[in-house]
């Protein structure tokens, strides 16, 4: 643990940021799983809204610096490819 007061504060802030990032990444994973489960069903409106939600979360994570832009693009691309594969 750090000895300087400002360093102690930074440790606390870094931990809070880490927990926030983990929670946000978890919400992206949940949305991905939800979209994939809807791909198996015939409800196209729900599927489109789920895909939109995944896109929104990924783009928001990029803007907040939680995900790299290529990581978000890869997640979105793999989602669409998996949905197309399930649709066949």
Question: Any overview of this molecule?
Answer:
The protein has one domain: Ribosomal protein S20 (Methane Monooxygenase Hydroxylase, Chain G, domain 1, Up-down Bundle), CATH 1.20.58. Helix content is 86%, strand content 0%. It has helices spanning 5-40, 44-64, 69-87.
Count, helices: 3
**Low-confidence runs of at least 5 consecutive residues:** none
| Class of secondary structure makeup | mainly alpha
What kind of sheet is the major sheet? none
Task: Put the structure in a nutshell.
The chain has helices at residues 5-40, 44-64, 69-87.
Map the helices and strands.
Layout (H helix, E strand, L loop, with lengths): L4 H36 L3 H21 L4 H19 L1
Helix pairs in contact: 1-2, 1-3, 2-3
Question: Can you tag this structure with a few keywords?
Answer:
elongated; 86% helix; single chain; Methane Monooxygenase Hydroxylase, Chain G, domain 1
């Amino acid at each position: 643990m750090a000895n300087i007061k400002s360093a102690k504060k930074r440790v606390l802030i870094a931990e809070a940021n880490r927990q926030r990032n983990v929670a946000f990444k978890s919400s992206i994973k949940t949305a991905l799983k939800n979209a994939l489960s809807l791909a198996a069903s015939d409800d196209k409106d729900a599927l489109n809204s789920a895909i939109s939600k995944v896109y929104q979360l990924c783009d928001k994570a990029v803007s907040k610096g939680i995900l790299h832009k290529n990581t978000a693009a890869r997640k979105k691309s793999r989602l669409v490819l998996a949905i197309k594969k399930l649709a066949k």
